[in-house]
Amino acid sequence: MVWGAEKMADFARLSINSATIDHRLSLEQCIDACARRAILAIAPWRHKIHDAGLKRAARMIRDSGLAVSGVCRGGMFTASDKAGRERALDDNRRAVDEAATLGADCLVLVVGGLPDGSRDLAAAHSQVHDGIATLLDYARRCNVPLAIEPLHPMYAAERACINTLRHANDLCDELGPGVGVAIDVYHLWWDDNLEAEIARASGRILGFHVCDWLVPTTDMLLDRGMMGDGIIDIRQISRWVTAAGYEGFIEVEIFSAQNWWLREAGEVLETAIRRFDEFV
Amino acid sequence: MVWGAEKMADFARLSINSATIDHRLSLEQCIDACARRAILAIAPWRHKIHDAGLKRAARMIRDSGLAVSGVCRGGMFTASDKAGRERALDDNRRAVDEAATLGADCLVLVVGGLPDGSRDLAAAHSQVHDGIATLLDYARRCNVPLAIEPLHPMYAAERACINTLRHANDLCDELGPGVGVAIDVYHLWWDDNLEAEIARASGRILGFHVCDWLVPTTDMLLDRGMMGDGIIDIRQISRWVTAAGYEGFIEVEIFSAQNWWLREAGEVLETAIRRFDEFV
User: Fold this and answer.
1) N or C: which end of chain A has fewer CB within 10 A?
2) pLDDT at residue A58, rounded to an integer
């Protein structure tokens, strides 16, 4: 095998995040679109699970033979008062239940940003720590691994104040078994310390997400690229994740309001399959 | 003095970056607008210096009594071929000359992102290292300190692949005397390690830039906020910078295409003066 033809990620490891394809599709339609193309796993967002009904969703997924690489998403632990944080924990326990019912590999956590009106980043970090610590008791009893997903620093204020794999690894060290990380190339590619932190995450990598960073990027949230259309050396990061021992699914998650979301699901999936082979 | 009324930054330390006010103003008009409000320093962008002519710019600034907290900007060391990197170095030597002629406290470096078509982040880092190392010989002879400005990670691909103060500090350790850092709250506020890295930067802090991160941020480049309008705890970061021994100018740099750039320069400056007192 020559270098140029090196094959990192087997098709059997491909998972499709439901947010990658047309949002009007029901969970049933997502499952069908993936199963028809012999894709072996999906990662459903909770609103799609709720729309289908949890038991029905579980049955449809079981019948399709698809694995669930992760449930999107728990988290959002930060709030300006205790009642808000309690509500978040209640919702997170339900998310754990859903992940357990679906037999998901993990529940992905987008941890939350600064509470409304707050400038206190350290307090937000504490709230996230305490929220995960509380949820973890419950998640362990349900056998649902919690995957902290560090988000790109441009989301620190509004979505997630854990923005490096180092910070996520530190949290995992503090919190102990039952919590790990989801590594998304979009959020982490820029970090000069990424290789070392991926190695450090060995044994706790619960998910690996791929898409691409477009140049230029025209929207901070909804302009992610298909693998190969941007500037991330996805294969390099994939090698590091493989070297750290991760053998789970590799999830394609693309938020693309002006491009991929406007296309027919079949086209998106078939493109994702080709690009996965070429770039991941 | 009560805590709430704590005053960190003296008005005498306020500097105005020329990109904060109406872009149609000439350097002469910028100088005049600042001097009339007893502001003691400016940070001009090079295109304004070029438009005025370097010698004339130097004379106008000297006559106004204004100090120059920094010249914006050198850098952009990365390129897809050697000729491109040589051109960048030539331009950087001219920028050093201009900073020397204006008696600037430093030349600010926005180091450059990935070369066109490249996905090789490590190579870009090497190019930045080598570019600064080469320029440094010249800058030392001209007595112009070089200030590496780590930019927000959302600019890693297109503008600067040094995105944390840790990375900038590492580079300074490698490169030796004559190079330091410019700390901009907009780029660095999200970093949970910021306090420690500011302390580590003690003795090499060459600039401190303030503005604010708006929620929501609608444009990745041109939607920065006036101090107090966003979620950055600017005063906290200001305390850390002060604790690290920095006593130089504090520069207001706001790129705001849809708000502050549309207002009359006097209104922008008077707002900046009030907010500087209140939030920095």
Assistant:
1) N
2) 98
**Distance from A15 to chain B by nearest Cα, in Å?**
24
Residue A239 structure tokens: 């090698």
Closest C-alpha to B253, from B14, B7, B11? B14
Closest CA to B71 of B146, B122, B166, B10: B146
- The CA distance from B3 to B18, in Å, is 33
Q: A70, A101, A75, A94: which is closest to A182 by C-alpha?
A: A70
**How far apart are the C-alpha atoms of A166 and A153, rounded to whole Å?**
13
What is the separation, in whole angstroms, between the first and last Cα of chain A?
Answer: 17
pLDDT confidence bin for A6, thresholds 50/70/90 = low
Nearest residue of A to residue B186, measured between CA atoms: A154
pLDDT at A9: 77
Percent of chain B with pLDDT over 90: 96
With an 8 Å Cβ cutoff, is B223 touching chain A? no
Helix (H) or strand (E) holding B250: strand B250-252
Of A152, A158, A167, the CB nearest to B215: A158
CA distance A43 to chain B (A): 26
For B170, the closest chain A residue by CA position comes to: A192
Residue A221 backbone dihedrals phi, psi, to 5 degrees: -110, -40
Q: How confident is the model at residue B7 (pLDDT cuts 50, 70, 90)?
A: low
**Residue A240 contacts residue A205 (beta carbons within 8 Å):** no
| Chain B residue with the nearest C-alpha to that of A228 | B119
Number of Cβ pairs < 8 A linking chain A and chain B: 77
Q: Which residue has the tokens 């830039």?
A: B209
ipTM: 0.95
Q: With an 8 Å Cβ cutoff, are B192 and A231 in contact?
A: no
Can you tell me the mean pLDDT for A31-52?
Answer: 97
Query: Which domains does chain B possess?
Result: 15-279 (3.20.20.150)
* CB–CB contact B189 A121 (8 Å): yes
CB contact under 8 A, B118 and A163: no
Per-residue pLDDT reduced to its tens digit, A176-210: 999 999 999 999 999 999 999 999 999 999 999 99
Q: What residues in A contact B164, CB-CB < 8 Å? A: 192
pLDDT at B6 over 90: no
pLDDT band at A102 (very low <50, low <70, confident <90, very high): very high
